[in-house]
Amino acid sequence: MEVGYTAKAEAGVYALAMLCGIDRVPPTILKKRGEELLSVQARAGTRDTGAFLQSEEAKQVLVEGKDHPGAESLMEIAVMDYLVNSSDRHWGNLFYDEASKQFHAIDNGYALGLSEPTTERGPTGEMRTRMRPVDGVYSAAVEVTHAHPDWKMSDGLRAKLQRTYDAVSAQLAYRRAMKQGTAEVGVSEEVRAGKEAEAVSEVFRFLHQKEDGNGAVTEDSMQIAKKEMELFLDRLKEVLDHGAVPPFERSDPQLGQQVEKQKARLAAARKVATEEMDDRTRK
């Protein structure tokens, strides 16, 4: 990984999350210290915010799923992690604020990496080739939502993602039509301006474009940036079609297994507590 890439990724994840209406990443900016590029991230939540595993209230989402008070914020993080190919959303990078009942996503430097073609089994058993992140998606938020198959996005989150997808897709289609000389008359000013498409494109150019010895951007790096942007939109479409993060083959299944074990343990403890309370009530 190139020097400074994690800082770029931190800023890129924040920019894309905000563009999608997902306000779960603390504000993140870039600074230079000499020749070194650094990212600076604001504090997540309030003084009551801490790591997921330090909060008994946060852990109850494993059992309660979509009925947990922080469910909406956790689903937003799961969706974001899938969109940006997050490969480091372990428990320590998932915070919970007991005051606001909201989850927060910190430390996003290991995301937005390159993709590669992989062969996997489709929903009907057929083998298919798809572009997947080289490092694989590793997200506790995704695994928790997948532990509850009936947990889907809220209408509000879906609407925000749909607006982003529709705006960027329409703007890119207009750009292609302009190049081909086939652009239609009467296109809206919003589509002509192309602000959303430019914002997404800028993130991937910033991450992946490289210069040659003469300071010119290389053709290969331009194509990589373009392709990664297209794959981001493909993943956004998948999320909209599925209503949540779609099933995918894990490069490391251990995190999902941890979630299932903790879910079973908490469910058993809750059952015992309920039975004890019932016994006291009857007495």
Question: What does this protein structure show overall?
Answer:
The chain has ten helices and seven strands. 50% of the residues lie in helices and 13% in strands. Helix 4 (71-83) crosses helix 5, helix 6 (155-180) packs antiparallel against helix 9 and helix 8 (195-208) packs across helix 9 (219-242). The chain has one domain. The longest helix is centred in the C-terminal third of the chain and has 29 residues, at 254-282. The mean pLDDT is 89. A three-stranded antiparallel sheet has the order 3-4-5. It has a two-stranded antiparallel sheet with strand order 1-2. The chain has a two-stranded antiparallel sheet with strand order 6-7. It is an alpha+beta fold and 283 residues long. The chain is globular.
Strand order in the largest sheet = 3-4-5
- What is the CA-atom radius of gyration, in angstroms? 21 Å
Query: What would the average pLDDT be, to the nearest integer?
Result: 89
Number of strands: 7
Q: Report the end-to-end length measured between terminal Cα atoms.
A: 64 Å
What oligomerization state is this entry in? single chain
The proportion of strand residues reads 5-15%
Largest sheet: 3 strands, antiparallel
Number of domains: 1
Q: Give start-end ranges of low-pLDDT stretches.
A: none
Which class of secondary structure composition applies to the elements? alpha+beta
What is the N-to-C succession of helices and strands?
A: HEEEHHHEEEEHHHHHH
**Helical segment tally?**
10
Shape: globular
| Helix fraction bin | 40-55%
